Amino acid sequence: MTPERMARPRHYLMCRPTHFAVEYSINPWMDPGKPVDADLAILQWERLHALFVSLGHTVEQIEALPGLPDMVFAANGATVVNGRVLAAKFRYQEREAEGPAYADWFRSRGYDVHEPAHVNEGEGDFLVDDDVILAGTGFRTDPEAHREAERHLRLPVVGLELVDPRYYHLDTALAVLAPGEIMYYPAAFSEKSRQFLRNRYPDAITATDQDAQAFGLNALSDGRNVILPEAATHLAARLAERGFTPIGAALSELLKAGGSVKCCTLEIRDRD
Ligand code: ARG
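A: This is the predicted complex of the input protein with arginine.
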């Protein structure tokens, strides 16, 4: 028997890729020599935005700033739990100015914003599974930032070590589908982290190499609908078997920067 899945309306923050480009390379997907269709990037993003709205979610937008081509990846802008915001502090100088831009957006709306001392790239590396935060490290977010998140967001944080540079953020290798249910790509993690994931999530969906390369784990679930890159067909089939409704999205242009569905979307978890 497949469980009946319930969608819960979400509050998201997105950033239109008005100034999107691949001008530098800070992950193996980025090749500044490869052409990017900027208009197509905007069109694909607008379809994703419209999809979230049609599913009943509230989507807010932050204004894209010139000179910050990766600002479209709103997931990296902060982590928000129960109305508390941990601002981001980026690893690379190219994205540094995004941290304060996102922090200001939250501050001007009355959120309690904590300025981080350690590098953390928001929901790129912090994924909330109900009452615990799964936190990536290895490429971007510092392990010290995990403790900082624990203190400010007031949830226990479990560290997971990423070992494959193609999967440099946790949200490129793992997605939370529903409380206690995840999908992930085991090869992206250290042996110790793999063991932890196997024990905590024995029924997890595991991605094939092809799913992972299609960025299939960079997915977003509302408890029922799971939006994921359309090329991740094996994952879509596994999701359907579990009673989820997989919805494929085309984001070819943003993928050239190493990002997809989840990277574009920051979840605002307001006070309970
Ligand atoms: N080009 C961006 C970077 O390397 C992509 C960020 C993708 N975001 C994410 N949440 N994984 O920083």
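The two ends are 32 Å apart (CA to CA). Residues 26-27, 30, 70, 73, 75-76, 95, 124, 169, 171-172, 257-259, 263 surround arginine (CB under 6 Å).
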